[in-house]
Amino acid sequence: MGSLISKVSKKKSEMASSPVAMSYYAKASSVKPPLIANENAFLGDVSSSDKIDPEKPISAGFYRLEKGTPLVYAYTYHEMKIIIEGSFDISDETGNKVHAVPGDVFYFPKGSKITFTTDDYGLAFYTGQRKADAA
């Protein structure tokens, strides 16, 4: 019995000490994401941890909105978003309204319903607690 425990402990310590490679996506923000809604809302995941951590996945990518139909989105997961180009007008159901510009960071809790609009266009980077392509 003692040898089984030591083998399991050894495997766990070997896993913990093995190097893990990072991922790199050159110029990822220069690719226009796919259309997801209306005629003007684009979103695309660049990377996700869902294959290596299916119980607690995070996915990240870019969201672009162009002038036109507002996007109303009900979040079924937690998400963080940073505005990197252009601007958005963002509001929630509680009456909060923000004119968002590059450098602004948002947290959208699971269960929130958010409306995005823009006078021209906006580009944001997001990280959400969800599987790939599940937005």
Overall description:
The protein has 135 residues and is mainly β. Helices cover 12% and strands 42% of the residues. The protein has one helix and ten strands, in the order H-E-E-E-E-E-E-E-E-E-E. A hairpin with a 4-residue loop joins strand 6 and strand 7. The strands form two sheets. It has a six-stranded antiparallel sheet, with no helix packed on it. Strands 4-9-6-7 form a four-stranded antiparallel sheet, with no helix packed on it. The chain starts with a helix and ends in a 7-residue tail after the last strand. The model has no long low-confidence stretch (mean pLDDT 90).
What is the element layout, followed by pairings?
Elements: H1 2-17, E1 35-37, E2 41-48, E3 59-66, E4 71-74, E5 79-86, E6 88-92, E7 97-100, E8 105-108, E9 113-117, E10 121-128
Antiparallel strand pairs: 1-2, 2-3, 3-10, 4-9, 5-8, 5-10, 6-7, 6-9
